[in-house]
Amino acid sequence: VQLQASGGGLVQAGGSLRLSCAASGLSFSSLAMGWFRQAPGKECEFVSYISWGGGSTLYADSVKGRFTVSRDNAKNTVYLQMNSLTPEDTAVYYCAADGSRGYPPNTIRRYDYWGQGTLVTVSS
Fold first, then answer.
1. Interstrand relation of 45-50 and 33-38 (parallel, antiparallel or unpaired)
2. Contacts from 21-28 at CB under 8 Å and sequence distance 24+?
3. Hey, what long-range contacts does 68-76 have (CB within 8 A, 24 or more apart)?
4. Could you tell me if 5 and 117 are in contact, meaning their C-beta atoms sit under 8 angstroms apart?
5. What whole-number distance in Å separates Cα of residue 9 and Cα of residue 85?
6. Mapping DSSP to helix (H, G, I), strand (E, B) and coil, where does residue 111 land?
7. What is the pLDDT of residues 5-17, one digit of tens each?
């Protein structure tokens, strides 16, 4: 199983980035996916969730209205469009594949597989 996150980089406050996470070695189209992030010196926190078909999404309050999660099951890829970025969004962003263990979708324990992370830096 491999989750390859990409699209991070340096952007000015107010700018946008789109993260991608390409999956292989799993039944991507049958799995919900999540995005998490970890800022320097802080714990990993939930960002967004998307159901296997894309019909259900969930966002952390801190990103609601600015970030949009989507997926293309034909390409085994999940995306995170991030707009109106602020320095508080600076973090390593991770994608994760659902383990369907019954935990809430905004919890780390819900997810079985994790990508390597992609760094997003927002300058003021």
1. antiparallel
2. 21/77, 21/78, 21/79, 21/80, 21/95, 21/115, 22/75, 22/76, 22/77, 23/76, 23/77, 23/78, 23/97, 24/76, 25/1, 26/1, 26/97, 26/113, 28/73, 28/76, 28/97
3. 69/33, 69/35, 71/33, 73/28, 73/29, 75/22, 76/22, 76/23, 76/24, 76/28, 76/29
4. yes
5. 12
6. strand
7. 999 999 999 999 9
Give the rounded percent of residues in the chain with a pLDDT score beyond 70: 100
For residue 18 the two structure tokens come to 């789109």
Q: Distance between CA atoms of 51 and 33, rounded to whole angstroms?
A: 7
Quick: pLDDT tens for 83-116.
999 999 999 999 999 987 789 999 999 999 999 9
CA distance 64 to 73: 23
Cα 51 from Cα 30, distance rounded (Å): 9
CB-based contact 82:19 (threshold 8 Å): yes
**Sequence letter at residue 33:** M
Q: Whose structure tokens read 């659902």?
A: 98
